[in-house]
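protien #1 (seq + structre)
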Amino acid sequence: MNATATQASILAVDDDTRSLMALQGLLADMSLRVVTAKSGDEALRCVLRQNFAVILMDARMPGVDGFEAARLIRERSRTHRSSFSPAPTRTRRP
């Protein structure tokens, strides 16, 4: 990757550390900056600090779940001239 090019950032959000590690492993060879968050609240703080090309978020998390976080991020994006199309993911748990 060209050192002067802007590196795309992806936000991965899941309360399951194993899922976050798996996502980081899958994305490692793609020259992307992967930022992780372990809750919807933490994801919201990340979105306030920087823009992301893609947000991959678990739908089922304690506290602010993926659906609520996506709704809040979408509301913010409407007022900040950016686009956000939520597609929350769901980790299959036993």
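ok now protien #2
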Amino acid sequence: MPFGKKEVPKKPRIDLPPGAKGPDETLQVDFDAVYEKLFRPSLEAAGLQPFWLAKQTRNAEKIGFR
């Protein structure tokens, strides 16, 4: 999972009729917030120790996490 804020493509809506095209838009996702508000609490509730390699690695960009 990346970290920081990233622009990601917005998926097509499933409620559009077949063949219809929605606007080509992107969403900005704050992956830090996703981790802190969703993944970390879920892992801790399961009795696990959260560890996000990309955040712990000094060279995250070199290993493709940034």
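Residues 42 and 48 are 9 Å apart (CA to CA).
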